[in-house]
Amino acid sequence: MPEKAHLFQKHLSKHTMGACVELSAGVGKTFEAIKAPGAHGCPTQADVSFTSKIEQSEQMYALLQEDYVGKVQECERWEAQATENGQLRASMESELTAKNAELESAHCVIQDLRRQLQVASGTLEGLQRQRATYLQRMNEISSIVDSLRST
What we know:
single chain, mainly alpha
C-alpha cells in the first residue's frame, strides 16, 4: 500500500520501535514477502509469477494431502489400538474384581483359622495345665504308695 511505502525505504535495523510494530502488524495485511531478486538485481519470472506460486502451492497441497492420508491411517491404527486397549482394560478390571473377591474370601478364611488357632491354643494350654496337675498328683500318689510299701 502506498501509505506504507515509507516502511520499506530503509533497513529494518534503522527503524524506530513504532515502525517495527507497524511492520509486524502489517504482515499479510498491507504487504507480503516475495523472493529476493536474482543475481543481477532483477526479479525473475519465478520470483514474482502467480503461476509459479500456484504451482508451488499445488505441490505443497499434494504433499500435505499425502501427509494427511498418512496421518488419518495412523489415527485409525491408534484408534484400533485404543479400542483394543480399552477391551483389555475392561477384561483386566473384571479379572481384578474377581481376584479381589477371591482375596477377600481368603482373608476371611485366614481370620477364621486364626480364631480357631487361638481357641486351640487356649485349649492346649488348659490341657497342659491339667496334665501338669495330674503329673503332680501322680507323683504325690506314687510317693504315698512308695512310703506305704516301705512301712
